[in-house]
Amino acid sequence: MKRAAAVLLQLILASLDGAALHAADQPQWGQRGSRNMVSEEKRLPDTFDPKTGRNIQWSVALGSETHSTPIVARGRVLVGTNNNAPRDPRHQGDRGVLMCFDEKDGRFLWQLLVPKITGDIYLDWPNSGICSPPTVEGDRVYAVSNRGEVMCLDLHGMANGNDGPYRDEGRHMVPADAPAVEPLPTDADILWMFDMRGEPTKVYENDAFHCSPLLHGRFLYVNTSNGVDNTHRKIRAPDAPSLIVLDKITGRLVARDHEGIGPRIFHCSWSSPSLGEVNGRPLVFLAGGDGVVYAFEPVKEAPPEGEVLKLKKVWSFDGDPTAPKQEVSRYMTNRKEGPSDIFGMPVFVDGRVFVAGGGDIWWGKNEAWLQCVDASKTGDITKTAQLWAYRFEPHTMSTPAVQDGLVFVSDTAGKLHCVDAATGKSHWVHQANGPFWASSLIADGKVYIGTRRGQFLILAASKELRVLSTIELESPISATTVAANGTLYVATMNRLYAVRKPAE
Fold first, then answer.
1. 343-364: b or e for each residue (b if 16 or more CB lie within 10 Å)?
2. Alpha-carbon gap, residue 358 to 412, rounded angstroms
3. Main-chain dihedrals φ then ψ at residue 295, nearest 5 degrees
4. What is the pLDDT of residues 147-165, one digit of tens each?
5. Contact 374/428 with Cβ under 8 angstroms?
6. pLDDT of residue 1
7. Are strands 313-318 and 379-380 parallel, antiparallel or unpaired?
8. Does the global pTM surpass 0.85?
């Protein structure tokens, strides 16, 4: 009897220990608010092999292009892709798709299908799918579609009925010239929708909408992806906002920026907002398409119906102050000089903002930088707040990952940089087999990142360069790796892998 009791006690303690190792879901891209690409998960694998199945819990097919980072919440895994491997035979051809899978076994649960914008391909690039990682809170999914619609979705899809107030999903999921269809239990349930391309924001995007919505209190902060037109030399919506704020309950527009960023955008506004608490007060950070980082006071309460607040700027930091600010389109295709833009998110850690930017990957100068900024100042802090700058080439699309005095940032030449967070000095640089579009994830003492040539790297998160594994996945990688509940989620262009050590 005593031996049986002892065994039972050991099993209980083991189960509690396993639960303690599982930090949490990953309901938003990056750490909550700060956007730091760091996870507290433990006991994560330092290798895996899709061919033998080693450390693969499950894997599922996606479309043919997947640029969206997976999100994990409440037993669901959500990822944006395209429709080039249709899950529903009623919907053929190019679409934006947000897929939802069961976290346990990868079983397909539901999908959001969004027709393409017709006409100008630069408004919704072919096969790019839904590029925006959603954000989950409770049973609500906040997502941005390929058509620039900010949506609130039911995490359970149509399986528990059409909850409304939006009821026209059958019309929305098909092209304008096609008859409406009857929604199935495997279709998305749209609760509300705000169209950024319509009134009153009238955004004009380039290539694709990309935004990971930021939640703070009752409000949802969304970068608009406002950018150049198909000539890449004209801003069609110079007065459109770069950052908007919506009521997360109703989808009503409650605030927007008035910083006049539009005419200075060199390509597009693809950097998502982040959050930090500075000297006891929260600030919302936005890296604009003009290469400037802005800090705003968050909205405290909604204005009366019909009114839209002006976001109050606390400070601005120009990451490239000597670059041209007027008629920036003159520098298109100039690889030696021109303005900077920022694709990655500003990351807030210990009172500082870490941000990576530089010349545009497709159209700009061969210059990239990682900068560390004191977030406690006010006004134009360009000359007073820079703590250090780290220069590299040629371009970067990376959001920095910061932990234990180290910053990891990648570039489009296939180099992963490890930089000292206090001084900005390089500890090491590792050359991979191809360009990085993804950002690093730091978790369990390791760095996880994949290249556009399908090479997946696992390195030690330390001052000394140690490559633990190099895995060939045979498909390009744009998405950042995610860790949640003891599992890594690695998305290639056409497949999602759930990677996990076997239970002990």
1. bbbbbbbeebbbbbbbbbbebb
2. 12
3. -120, 130
4. 999 999 999 999 999 998 9
5. no
6. 36
7. parallel
8. yes
Helices and strands (H, E) in the chain, number of each type? 2, 35
Query: Would you say 47 and 457 are in contact if contact means Cβ atoms under 8 Å apart?
Result: no
Contacts of 7 (CB under 8 A, 6+ apart): none
DSSP 500: -
Task: Read off the amino acid at residue 502.
Answer: P
Backbone phi, psi, residue 47, to 5°: -165, 165
Residue 232 has pLDDT above 80, yes or no: yes
Q: Answer yes or no: are the C-beta atoms of 231 and 288 closer than 8 Å.
A: no
Q: What does the chain come to in residues?
A: 504
Question: Torsion angle of alpha carbons 397, 401, 406, 407, nearest 10°?
Answer: 20
Six-digit token pair at 468?
A: 């633990």
Q: Strand pairing partners for 357?
A: 369
How far apart are the C-alpha atoms of 229 and 235, rounded to whole Å?
Answer: 6
Kindly tell me the sign of the dihedral angle through the C-alpha atoms of 190, 195, 196, 200. Answer: negative
| β-strands 467-472, 455-460 pairing | antiparallel
Which residues does residue 386 pair with via DSSP β-bridges, in sequence order? 373
Q: Is the pLDDT of residue 174 over 60?
A: yes
Residue 213 and residue 274 in contact, taking contact as beta carbons nearer than 8 Å: no
pLDDT digits (tens, 9 = 90+) for 1-33: 333 333 333 333 333 333 333 348 999 999 988
Phi and psi based region of residue 351 (left: phi greater than 0; alpha: psi -120 to 50; beta: remaining):
left
